[in-house]
Design brief:
Layout: H1 2-12, H2 24-44, H3 48-59, H4 65-70, E1 86-89, E2 96-99, H5 104-114, H6 131-140, H7 149-159, H8 168-179, H9 187-191, E3 195-197, E4 200-204, H10 211-218, H11 222-228, E5 242-244, E6 261-263, H12 270-277, H13 281-287, E7 301-303
């Protein structure tokens, strides 16, 4: 029965891709709000991937002061037609006024209504699967002042495979996972989702997990788990870590073919980067001309393909 459940999860699960220890909040945000994003797409025609990507960036995955204090997930300012409450926050000006909502759901709905303005109407001539066109169109229409806003949206969409939610197949997969019941005896699979990235499958470590439990529940030997993830035998999993269930690949997914680099972030190790893109640690070293792993510096540029 357990093997059957795992097979079902692998085949029916809502497929995301790529993650890293420091971005566990992104996974939580996507899982929590993807249903609303799909709902808004059906009602207003805005790609779910765009809604999710904007929410992730504008609210720092729901952790910004604007999101936590005003339920504002999209950085929408007051404007001339807003009669509701607001909060004052420094942005383009020190006294910018931002809309305040009763709930996060209200913020998602208002975001859709906000994009019905005349200046955004050209976007609706694009396909709902043209997330790149939507991202560039939003920037051109003046949604954000950052010159890299469109590129940032596209990068997030591709890194987390948010574009899957723009398709009927992706939506059906999400619905099936939500409706698939797992027996109470399999508590592990009630709190763990199997994700897909770079032609591999992985889970995100939760509080209380250990390698023995992961081995037992996935049906993989400890030896394979350690080997697949470039881990030492004394490794103790930490919440948010990625554990791959198959052997990692030699380079990042083809989605990164046009931009095959990674810029090292704060508190990010070479191992973190290998896990983020689903690359074998040895292969990541070879891509960068190294004989063995070594410490990386913030801002350092690494090849991932």
């Amino acid at each position: 029965m357990k093997k059957y459940i795992i097979i079902c999860l692998l085949s029916l699960v809502s497929l995301l891709s790529y993650g890293q220890r420091t971005n566990q909040a992104y996974w939580t945000y996507i899982d929590k709000y993807k249903g609303w994003a799909i709902e808004q797409m059906h009602q207003y025609g805005i790609p779910a991937s765009i809604t999710l990507a904007q929410g992730l960036l504008e609210s720092n995955a729901g952790r910004s002061s604007l999101a936590t204090g005003a339920n504002n997930h999209f950085g929408i300012k007051v404007g001339s037609n807003w009669t509701g409450p607001y909060v004052v926050k420094s942005d383009d000006r020190p006294d910018d006024r931002f809309r305040k909502y009763k709930s996060a759901r209200e913020s998602f709905i208002d975001h859709s209504k906000f994009l019905q303005q005349k200046r955004y109407q050209g976007l609706y001539r694009l396909s709902k699967t043209d997330y790149k066109g939507w991202a560039r169109g939003l920037k051109a229409a003046g949604y954000a002042t950052s010159p890299t806003y469109a590129d940032a949206l596209i990068r997030v969409i591709e890194m987390y495979s948010l574009h899957q939610f723009d398709t009927k197949k992706g939506q059906e997969a999400t619905t099936m996972v939500q409706e698939t019941s797992v027996p109470q005896a399999d508590a592990f699979w009630q709190s763990h989702v199997v994700y897909k990235g770079n032609k591999n499958y992985f889970i995100i470590v939760e509080i209380g997990d250990d390698m023995a439990t992961i081995s037992k529940e996935t049906g993989l030997s400890l030896r394979k788990l350690y080997k697949y993830n470039d881990l030492p035998r004394d490794y103790a999993p930490t919440e948010g870590d990625i554990i791959y269930l198959k052997k990692k690949r030699n380079s990042a997914s083809k989605e990164f073919k046009k931009n095959p680099i990674h810029i090292v972030e704060v508190n990010q190790s070479l191992f973190d980067i290998a896990q983020l893109y689903g690359i074998r640690l040895e292969s990541l070293c070879k891509l960068n001309g190294w004989d063995e792993p070594h410490a990386v510096q913030v801002g350092e540029i690494l090849r991932i393909r």
